[in-house]
């Protein structure tokens, strides 16, 4: 007797909608990935990064005292092909997305994403999400590790991620695509 291999059934958006609200649900490479809300260290890192970047880049281009020119969004739901991803932060250049749509999810790939790494999430980010971002042409990505107090800055070149820089602790950096302003990354890490 031969056994047929069980055919893998890709997760659907209906599957995602069944996940309780206190969890984060994504569809990565056909698999439903569910994770708990982030711990406080993770949340602190994402919140302080958002505030810092938004205050300088979140306004219209060439605003007073800040370069502006970006839409910076905390935990947006992105529908990229068959995948549904929720990066910790994402940003679109206003030149590419003149108005931020008032919708539940966005189908236009962002120009930049940031994933804050936490225990149990790093593998999914590096193995599943980063290839999705590359496939969709996201130009820049940051990986922030709040435990190691480490920021990895990456650029997409010929469909592959290239590490542009790794910064740790309380360094002051110019990290693309936000390199018009020096950033004090030490403010992002929970004391």
CATH superfamily: tt1808, chain A
Distance between the termini: 62 Å
Percent in helix: 10-25%
| Uncertain spans | none
The order of strands across the largest sheet is 3-6-7-8-9-10
Tell me the major beta sheet: 6 strands, mixed
Named at the architecture level, the CATH assignment is Alpha-Beta Complex
User: Could you say what the CATH topology is called?
Assistant: tt1808, chain A
The secondary structure category is alpha+beta
Binned strand content: 25-35%
Count of β-strands: 12
Write down the CATH class.
Alpha Beta
What is the succession of H and E elements?
Answer: HEEHEEEEEHEEEEE
Q: How many DSSP H or I helices?
A: 3
Number of domains: 1
Shape: globular
The radius of gyration over CA amounts to 17 Å
**Residue-averaged pLDDT, rounded?**
92
Note down, in words, how this protein is organized:
The chain has 191 residues and is α+β, with helices and mostly antiparallel strands. The chain has a single domain, classed as tt1808, chain A, CATH 3.90.1570.10. Helices cover 19% and strands 31% of the residues. The protein is built from three helices and twelve strands; from the N terminus they run H-E-E-H-E-E-E-E-E-H-E-E-E-E-E. It has helices at residues 13-17, 40-57, 122-135; strands at residues 23-28, 31-36, 70-74, 78-80, 83-85, 89-93, 112-116, 140-145, 150-157, 160-168, 172-173, 183-184. The strands form four sheets. A six-stranded mixed β-sheet has the order 3-6-7-8-9-10, with helices on both faces. A two-stranded antiparallel sheet has the order 1-2. A two-stranded antiparallel ribbon has the order 4-5. A hairpin with a 4-residue loop joins strand 8 and strand 9. The longest helix is centred in the first third of the chain and has 18 residues, at 40-57. The protein is globular and about 55 Å long. The mean pLDDT is 92.
């Amino acid at each position: 007797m031969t056994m047929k291999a069980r055919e893998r059934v890709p997760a659907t958006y209906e599957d995602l909608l069944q996940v309780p609200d206190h969890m984060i649900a994504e569809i990565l490479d056909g698999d439903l990935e569910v994770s708990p809300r982030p711990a406080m260290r993770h949340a602190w890192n994402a919140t302080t990064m958002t505030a810092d970047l938004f205050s300088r880049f979140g306004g219209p281009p060439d605003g007073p005292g800040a370069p502006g020119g970006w839409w910076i969004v905390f935990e947006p739901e992105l529908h990229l092909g068959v995948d549904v991803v929720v990066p910790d932060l994402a940003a679109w250049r206003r030149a590419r997305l003149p108005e931020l749509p008032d919708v539940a999810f966005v189908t236009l790939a962002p120009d930049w994403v940031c994933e804050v790494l936490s225990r149990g999430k790093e593998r999914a980010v590096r193995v599943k999400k980063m290839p999705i971002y590359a496939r969709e042409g996201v130009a820049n990505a940051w990986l922030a590790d709040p435990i190691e107090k480490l920021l990895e800055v990456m650029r997409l070149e010929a469909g592959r991620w290239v590490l542009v820089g790794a910064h740790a602790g309380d360094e002051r950096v110019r990290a693309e695509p936000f390199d018009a302003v020096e950033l004090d990354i030490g403010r992002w890490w929970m004391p």
